[in-house]
Amino acid sequence: MTIATNGLHHVTAIAGDPQRNADFYLKTLGLRLVKSTVNFDDPGTYHLYYGDEAGRPGSLMTFFPFRGAPRGRQGTGQATTTSFSVPEHSIGWWYRHLESVGVEVGRIQNRDGEDVLTFRDPDGLVLSLVAHPQGDPRAPWDNGIVPAEHGIRGLHSVTLSVSREEATFGMLNKLGLNLVSEQENRFRFAAADGGPGSFVDVLVTPREPEGLVAAGTVHHVAWRAPDQPTQATWRAELAESGVRPTSILDRQYFRSVYFREPGGTLLEIATDDPGFTADEPLLELGRALKLPPWLEPSREQIAAGLPALNLPAENNPEELPA
């Protein structure tokens, strides 16, 4: 196998009310809405993408918000925690900030030499902020809501919960990830040279029930491919090894291939290109509803069925920080 992902591309989850979702990720976590579009497979609901100022791969958390969606159940066969990277000195600031806006937070823990602060979003999705002792060179979205010195740098890791580990370990190895640490029933794998944005933790919980994907749970986890030819090669290698990947799908801002790892979690390989400025300027990212060409004839009908989203002015400043 020649597959060697550089790390996480994005994590996609299910939410309930879209305005509540946007308020939390924009105002509480200080991310930027870099694309407002729809679920291409179910255009009656939004697909909202949050990330750094340009929505770079590795910074992205995305949502399908279904109004009135029932709560899901976290369990095996899912990504059960999504973690963001923050500066090492910022965990205390985040603890106070989250408490001040009414978010219930757990105690700060130290795991693998990293401080970890765990909490839930308004739909119950489990999130954590992680401070890596070697730091994270990625720049935050400097929006004036969360101070840049404390801002989220991007994704840090995801945690997959499985009832049995061997087959999942094998799949991660196929993707080019290697086991780098082990603590009781938690196993950390890293892509490339490791560091924030490259990690996946496998939590082995044989007595836990299977998860149920609905509001407050992760739908899928995407890994990076540098370009479309590389993605096509990797897809062919997965198919030859007995995995059943989908065809390559056009998601406008990247190309996608989906498949399930043996533990049950839906995975994706997503290309780094073409990116979110493919159909709107950097300054205007997320401001307007963007549709793929095949849905444009139905724009009026689709837009009428979607609730309005009120975005803070900081999402689209007149100038971006230098």
UniProtKB/TrEMBL annotation:
Domain VOC span(s) in chain numbering: 7-132, 154-272
Classification via PANTHER family: RING-CLEAVING DIOXYGENASE MHQE-RELATED (PTHR36110:SF2)
Name the record gives this protein: Glyoxalase family protein
